[in-house]
Protein 1
Amino acid sequence: MESVHAIKQRFGIIGDDPKLNRSIEKAIQVAPTDISVLVTGESGVGKESIPRIIHSLSHRKHNKYIAVNCGAIPEGTIDSELFGHEKGAFTGATSTRSGYFEEADGGTIFLDEVGELPLPTQVRLLRVLENGEFLKVGSSKTQKTDVRIVAATNVKMFDAIKNERFREDLYYRLSTVEINLPPLRDRKSDIHLLFRKFASDFATKYKMPTIRLEDDAVQNLLKYRWSGNIRQLRNVAEQISVLEQNRSISAEKLRAYLPDTGSNLPAVIGQNKKSESDFNSEREILYKVLFDMKSDLNDLKKLTLELMENGNNATVQEENKSLIKKIYSEDDSDAYESAEDITEVLQLPEESVVSSPMKDKYHFAEDVEEEETLSLQEKELELIEKSLERHNGKRKAAAKELGISERTLYRKIKQYDL
Ligand SMILES: Nc1ncnc2c1ncn2[C@@H]1O[C@H](COP(=O)(O)OP(=O)(O)OP(=O)(O)O)[C@@H](O)[C@H]1O
Ligand SMILES: [Mg+2]
């Protein structure tokens, strides 16, 4: 029998917490049987690797493994997806189609988010579990299949049963063996380990030096509730890896990435909350990249204009020293300081640009830019507001997070009347 250690390596599972090891051990033990398994645990704890382990260690490993996200299939089509349909069973059923239970004959089906299954589908599933029988939609001919079922849920199944959203008999059939994955906050010894692994992966991915947490930041990382579990931890590691110039992360800096730090209120756990926060952080990263790109573009425009007007001579090079350094230098810290000077230059009153003989040639480009500037300004405003909010109005911390000087932030606050 393969060891827990070997399985963790094979499936890229990081951590050495005894509760995690016990869950993996259970998966290894149950794998050679045909027993139905229910994997439970909060969102983001790593439930999806368990059915893969079970399948790959079972006698079914050479047959199909099909993962179905029950929450993602519309109620109207789920029966047909799972069990297939006959030609003419409903409008649009132009031919007979086999479903996952027929396809996976001899293999394993992973029913993720099983708590989301509609009640009529639960009845069909119960029948398959009881005697391997099912009916295609629109057919009265019973078919047989030999499928091992592993299901997963992050909802409290007993609540669902109490509210008559899930059949009790089906629950007991599915959960012959239950494998529970512990939340990250109960696996304290794994938190920093996982963070370091993710930080190193993202450093490679984004070709940047690896971020490192200062000692007090590590303490905060361990105390945090992590209601989005490992998914949230990875997300935080990615955001910091992308956004922070200084690769040594203090506790104060880390706090900005941990919503509701210090709150003892129970965290809200749920798909919607999770996806909303993922979206926000991704959007913020994109805005930051956009701003940097726009600033580079403006620098390049200015330099090109200078070169077209005056040619490439020593005076132009001397006058644009900081600009050239910013565009072509690898050193980010200097770059951000000089970027501010350029912003000042670009914000000169209209007349100074009008006096340029090149103005007419670029008229069209200027118009386009104006519209783009407007929407970017809205995003910039949103980004500044959020950063200030995260840092409780502390300008120094917000400026650092945004990669601009305090002076620039102060000017923007005045500009946007914040
Ligand atoms: N022990 C671990 N080591 C490394 N990565 C992990 C570990 N556990 C989970 N992950 C990663 O965290 C992310 C979330 O895991 P997964 O998708 O399995 O969560 P889940 O429990 O199915 O959550 P949900 O209920 O929201 O579907 C995945 O990208 C997964 O690779
Ligand atoms: Mg999942």
Note: Residues 261-280, 330-373 have pLDDT under 50 and may be disordered.
Protein 2
Amino acid sequence: MNKIDDSAHRYVHGYSEREIERLVDQATTLTDLLHSDTRYPAGVSVLEAGCGVGAQTVTLVENSPEAHFTCVDISNRSLQRAKARVEATRHRNATFQQGDIFNLPFPDNHFDHAFVCFVLEHLEKPVKALCRLKSKLRPGGTITVIEGDHGSTYFYPGSTEAWQTIQCLIDLQARIGGNALIGRQLFPLLTKAGYRTPSVSPRMVYVDASRPDYVDGFTKNTFIAMVEAVGGDAIKAGLINASTWDKGIKGLKRTTEGDGTFCYTFFKGTGTN
Ligand SMILES: C[S@@+](CC[C@H](N)C(=O)[O-])C[C@H]1O[C@@H](n2cnc3c(N)ncnc32)[C@H](O)[C@@H]1O
């Protein structure tokens, strides 16, 4: 039974078909950058918290085929998508369960590891979430957290209006309790939550015309798609007017032309219980 109604959950990107495609494009393009150093040994149990539609899950099960993944999301609809996505692979080492990070349906000290990607940025209380996850880890278990940071964006040619559109997304996310600049805070957040030996590494995506796969998969289909999707809300909220918004989106798209460049930094953190 779906006890948690998706509509009750505030999530700046929403749960539309376009957003599902965007999460998958994002994960596919960034697989090496974000997953190259994450491998779990045979027999260990890993909690993937906030698995969404399974965009990261397919990589986790592929890279660590002998670990067992328990994948949780507050959205039952997303969870069903995630399940179908993994069932379409040859891997059978993941199970799916609806749940809230703040009230996880597992005993304490239950998992060897936890993996959380692009979730803390949407939570009003990220330290509390990290503490809840920590309580589910056995002593010596680890957490891996990956987050973006929209303030890390820069591009050529420059455009004031383009930057204003990004600021709208940052502001809208903040209004519903999220933090689109959370990547830079991973180290203090892990420390505050009590993890030992926290360690954070920046992962920069640099895009120019020599990498057309990144131009499409990251700049267009991940980043610009994410910003474009909040246009209506940003204008309605009075954060920007329609003509500045259009100029800004044009400015972002201009960076995908032959002489354009685009940079964004993700942050990957680990800590030990
Ligand atoms: C941006 S998506 C990321 C999904 C996936 N980790 C990925 O990288 O593609 C954020 C996900 O976190 C989930 N989420 C948000 N708050 C949650 C909570 N309190 N407990 C469990 N899941 C939550 C949302 O439903 C959404 O599926």
Note: The first strand starts at residue 45 and ends at 49.
